[in-house]
Structures are given as C-alpha cells and as structure tokens.
Specification:
heterodimer; A: 4-stranded parallel beta sheet; globular; B: alpha/beta; Rossmann fold; 2 domains; 4-stranded parallel beta sheet; 13 helices
C-alpha cells in the first residue's frame, strides 16, 4: 500500500513520519509546480476553489509516481474543503485513475467511519489498531515541533547578520527532528532546537517591521502559492508571524499551541468583528488580525484563494479592523491566473507604506523625548 | 422604532415568519423594495468584489434601508436542517452587514439554528424582542408564534400552476430564482415558452431528504442538500422534462454541488441538465437564447411529454 497525503505545510512531514513508523509505504507528492496547477485545472470544473484544483493536480502527480491510496481529511463544517474528498474521488475516477481514497472525518463527528477508515489503512500495516492509533499523538507532537522551527525561522530571518544562517539552522533542526522516536526524544530535540537558534547571530538592534501573515490554509502556508511571502518580507526587513499552522489543526481540544491561543480566546478576540464561526479558518484569521493589530504590528498580509467562502467574509471585515486599529491590511486573492510580479508589486507597496509609517512614528517619539 | 428587513438572501425563505414575529411585537417593519438595477449596482459597488451575486444584492438592499429605519434585522441562520450547516455567507452575513458602511443602521442578528432540536436559539429571539421593548409576555408569545410558523413552513410545499405542457425543473437558490431582477425573469420566461417551471420549494422536504441520503457522502449544506435531493427526485421519477441548474457566479456550495450532480446524473442517466450561471453582468439576450435552445431541444427530441421510465438514457459523462 502506497499512501499519499496532501502536501500542506507540515502535513506531508507528519504523514510520512507516521507511515514510516506504521510500516506503510508512502509516496511524496512532488513539490508544487506549474504542471501541478495545469493538471488540476484541466480536470476540474471551472468554479471549484483553487486549493481543490491544486490538490487534484497534486493527487494526479502522486498517482503517476506510484501512489495507490490517497488519504485525506475532511469534516462536517460549512467550508467547501469538507467535500473535497468526494469530488476528488469522482473526478479522478472519471479520468480513469485506479486508486483507493480514504477520507478521514473527525473521530468525534463520525466515530464509525473513522474506525472503518483506520481499518482500511491498517490492512497494509503489521500493527494492531490500538498501537496504530497510539502512534498518532507522537506524530502530531513532531509536527508541532516542525511548525515551531518554522515559526522561529520566520521571526529571526529579518534580523540575521549573515544571510542564510537562519535557513541553515532550520534545516539542521529538521534533520535532528526526523529520527526522534518517542515523546522524550522529541522533547530533547525541542531543547536542542532552542539552543541551535540561540547560536544564530542576530542583530537585535536592527530596525524592523512586524508583519502578520494570515489567510486560507493552503495559500498562507505553502510557499508556492504565496510566492514565498515570509522570505520575501524578511528581505524587506520584516519579522513575520503566521496565524495558521498545520499541527494546530490536528491538536485536539481546540488548543493551538503553535499559534498560542485556544479556540475560546480566538472566539473572544474575533468578537466585535465576527461573532460566530464562519467555517474554514475565517474566524481564526479575523481573531489573529485583531490580535496582531493589538500587539502593534505594522502591517497584515492576507492570502486567500479566489472566492474562498470564509475568507471573503473575513476580508470584508478586515476593512473594519483596518479602520479601527489603524493598520494597513493587504488582501491578495490567488488563483491559477495570479502572477508573481503583480503580487510582489503590491507587497512592496505595503512594506513601503509600513516603513514610512514606522519611521514617522519613531521620529515623533524622538521629538517627544527631546521635548521632555 | 422602525425595523428594516432587506428583501434579499434568506428573506425569500423565512421572510413571512420574520415579518409575523415583528408584527406580533407591534414593531413597525419596513421591507426594502424589490430588487432593481440601482440596488444591484450599489451592492456591486460597495460589497467585496469576490462575493457571490446574492450577497451583492443583499448589500444593495442594506443601503436601501439607510436613513429609513433605526435598526436592520439580519438573522444569522446557522443551519436549516438537523446535522447540516448553512453556507458560510449566511453564517457571517450580519458581520458582513456591519462592516459594509459605518452609516448603515445597527444590525440585529438573532441566531436561527433550525438544526438544533432543543431550539436553544429562540433565547436569542426572546432577547431581541425584549431589546425592542416588548413585555415578557408578548416576547414569549412572539417567539412561540415564530416557532409554530417555522414548523408549518417546513412541512409545506408550494403548489404549482400548470402553464404549459412541459415541466422544467429549476434547481437554484430561492433567493435567485424568486427574485425577478436577479434571475432576469427566468420563471416568467419559461412560462411564456409554454412550459411549467418547478422550483425547489415545490418538492416536499421529506422527499428531497430521502433522495439526498442516497448520495455516497452526505451534503452538509442545508439548502444544497435539499436542492440535490430535489434534482435527484425529479430526475429519477422523470417528473420533469429537463432540469435547469441555476447558480450564481462565485457561489461556493453551488460549485461543489454542481460538479457532484453533473457526475451523479451522468452515471444514472438522467433527464437533460443545463447549468446557468448568473452574475451582475448577466444579460437577457444570452439567457433567452440558451433557454430557447434548451426548451426546443427538449420538445424536438421527443421527450417533451414526460414518460415514466421511457425517457432515453443520456450517455455517461455527458456534456460538461
């Protein structure tokens, strides 16, 4: 059995790690490229949302590479994402591919189908169901560590003294994380990661912007679809913080350890702007925007696929957040037609604006202190 | 105190119930006028450009209420059926209305979660009634009346009037289909072509639910589930000669259900299906041409009168 899971942030890492320990075969989907987009767009109906088209293209590439079981997750929310699996199955079957698809619903929403799906995946593994399920928490823990490394790197990249030193540290940390086999080992790796990042030389006094990166999961996390915004922003002197992390989504009980706020806090932070869950990650993003603005960030960048249901509402609300907190928000919608230059011009305009506001503020503060 | 209700979105489903609720409280209600091109243009200008057409229409209606009312009633419909969700646009509609323009009237947004069997959401309506100055007794009476009306509303199906020899199923959101400006008078045009249009509310919810449950994965948008069930019911019972799937541009659930239905009906061999996408640029000429072509095709292919079990089976796949 050769499993393939969607390539979104640390999901690929977690799935691969899990399959290795469970003795299942795993086929990587190749990195996203123009071909992925073309393949996906060619088989999908026009109005499907962009992430769905991408996942279709990516699934086709994985099937060509020898995967035979597509594993994906869904749920019972109002976002279109929850129906991806079904549409994916129908479209790929119509296109004549031979494969099996396992769509995991949340164990709390649909315990029976969850159990059945576990049995289906298990048929290719030497493990029993209990040991199989006990592998899950460790996988999520490793994913969390992966996301934390990424978060650290985004925060430090703008301040590094020697170009590329942060990326090198992040790579080393990931290679430390890969072989970890137990909870204790992951804890050890986390300590080692913290130490490793401390050895990176950073210029703490350097003037920098703080930019919040928010948006729909796929476009916000995957560098191919946001044109590597975190690295690009770092070059313009911005420390970046992101609202969504893949392992947060798999952490039960609504805790979001990497983002650092649980669901209750998120609901409260979003309160005057969005008073009810609106599906997908709309509420989290609105809450993150409000939180970032309260913490004094200089700008927010919002990525969403064209006509994404929750994000369009979030984006309408951003105009209100932008007015109330006096913070520039750039909302970019991404689809198969989007070009890199257009995005970069707009992001450049945003960073220029943020820099000029930042300098103005610093100057005003200096004048105040001179007067005093 | 004057409360305004925009004549858009779910007003076309539950408007009567909301109106009666307000009337029981003795509050003066103002419902915005039927959609005109002006309203649509204003909505298009002010709403985010990626919103679907009905949300733009809704935004236009919100501006109609400006300066005319003290408060606007935009209930937050969370679900319409047990175990389902409304579209995210309905969930966030009051929030969207609040961030449209600071000059708009304040928004009352009681939650309406018809899928909640314990009906806890009526507390919200009770609070709204109290905030509008009703006594405890009349607020309770209004809430009870609302529940009764909704229960009656759910069991009803609209009776149709025959206007021609051929029945056409028009599967689309009621707020698109029943709004003559948005749908460009689709229903009347079908009537003028000697055919009888049937809409989703002509089929009992229970029948729709029965057919929707035969799908391999449950659809968890309330209305889309009903819509898909209705289309399957029409197609399987051959009670219509052809089906028009009317969706609006950038309608999220519509895009998924459209893809699903095309696939499912293609496999089952159904009556012909045509998709019409509406947006603010939709022009009458284009619609009429396609409609005429569709109806002529049905007439001349010899399938005009519905023959039970006799309709020719469409080849698998079918036109995309």
């Amino acid at each position: 059995m050769n499993i393939n899971a969607p390539r979104v942030g640390s999901m690929q890492f977690m799935a691969k790690d899990f399959c290795e320990r469970a003795g299942l075969g795993y086929v990587d989907s190749p990195p996203y490229s123009e071909r992925t987009v073309e393949l996906g767009v060619s088989v999908s109906p026009e109005h499907l949302c962009f992430p769905m088209k991408i996942l279709l293209g990516s699934a086709i590439e994985a099937l060509e590479d020898g995967a035979d079981t597509l594993v994906t997750v869904a749920g019972f929310g109002p976002c279109r994402f929850n129906y991806f699996g079904e549409i994916q199955k129908r479209i790929l079957k119509r296109e004549g591919f031979e494969f099996e698809i396992v769509v995991f619903d949340g164990p709390r929403d649909a315990p029976v189908s969850f159990y059945r799906n576990v049995r289906r995946v298990l048929s290719g593994s030497p493990l029993g169901p209990v040991r199989f399920l006990r592998l899950l928490p460790l996988t999520v823990l490793k994913g969390r560590c992966y996301d934390e490394i990424e978060k650290q790197a985004m925060a430090l990249r703008a301040l590094e003294v020697e170009a590329g030193s942060v990326d090198r540290a992040a790579e080393e940390c990931l290679s430390m994380l890969l072989p970890a086999q137990s909870r204790d080992e992951v804890e050890e790796v986390r300590c080692a990661v913290a130490e490793r990042f401390q050895t990176v030389e950073v210029d703490k006094a350097r003037l920098h912007l703080r930019v919040g990166l928010i948006g729909e999961l796929m476009t916000c996390i995957e560098p191919y679809f946001n044109f590597d915004a975190p690295r690009w922003l770092a070059k313009k002197g911005a420390v970046v913080e992101r609202s969504l992390h893949m392992s947060d989504i798999f952490t039960p009980m609504g805790r979001n350890p990497v983002f650092g706020a649980d669901d209750r806090e998120i609901g409260l932070a979003a309160r005057p702007f969005v008073c009810h869950g609106i599906g997908g990650h709309g509420q989290i993003n609105v809450a993150a925007a409000a939180m970032f603005a309260r913490r004094g960030f200089d700008a927010l960048v919002h990525f969403a696929p064209f006509a994404c249901l929750p994000e369009v509402i979030a984006r309408t609300v951003f105009s209100r957040i932008s007015n109330e907190f006096d913070i520039p928000v750039l909302s970019i919608s991404v689809d198969e037609q989007t070009g890199r230059e257009g995005i970069q011009t707009r992001m450049e305009a945003l960073t220029d604006l943020a820099w000029s506001r930042y300098r103005e503020r610093v100057n005003a503060e200096e004048r105040e202190s001179v007067k005093a | 105190m004057r409360v305004g209700i925009p004549r858009a979105m779910l007003y076309h489903h539950y408007g009567e119930c909301w109106l009666e609720f307000m009337e029981t409280l003795g509050v003066e209600v103002f419902v915005s006028d039927y959609t005109t091109s002006d309203i649509l243009t204003r909505g298009t200008v002010h709403a985010d450009n990626e919103n679907c057409l009905p949300v733009k229409v809704f935004s236009g209606h919100m501006f109609e209420l400006k300066d005319r009312v003290d408060l606007a009633l935009v209930p937050r419909v969370v679900s319409e059926e047990y175990g389902t969700w409304a579209c995210p646009k309905f969930l966030g509609l009051p929030d969207l209305a609040r961030s449209l323009d600071p000059d708009l009237p304040d928004v009352l947004a009681p939650v309406m979660d018809l899928g909640d069997r314990r009906c806890l959401w009526v507390k919200d309506w009770y609070r709204t009634a109290r905030a509008l100055g009703a006594s405890r007794l009349s607020a309770a009476a209004a809430v009870t009346g609302l529940l009764e009306n909704l229960a009656r509303h759910r069991l009803q199906s609209r009776a149709h009037v025959d206007t021609g020899d051929m029945k056409i199923g028009v599967a689309g959101h009621l707020y698109n289909v029943h709004d003559p400006r948005v749908s460009l008078g689709l229903l009347d045009r079908i009537r003028a072509m000697d055919a009888t249009p049937l809409t989703v509310d002509h089929v009992l919810r229970s029948r729709a639910r029965y057919h929707a449950n035969t799908l391999s994965r449950k659809i968890f948008w309330s209305f889309e589930s009903r819509l898909a069930g209705t289309v399957l019911n029409w197609s399987r019972s051959r009670s219509v000669a052809g089906i028009l799937f009317v969706t609006s541009f950038a309608c999220g659930p519509g895009s998924m259900v459209g893809a699903l239905l095309e696939d499912q009906l293609g496999r089952e061999g159904s009556v012909p299906l045509m998709t019409i996408t509406l947006d603010e640029h939709a022009a009458e000429a284009g619609l009429v041409t396609r409609l005429e072509a569709f109806i002529d095709m049905l007439r001349y292919s010899g399938r005009a009168d519905t023959r039970v079990g006799g309709a020719a089976v469409r080849a698998g796949g079918g036109p995309r």
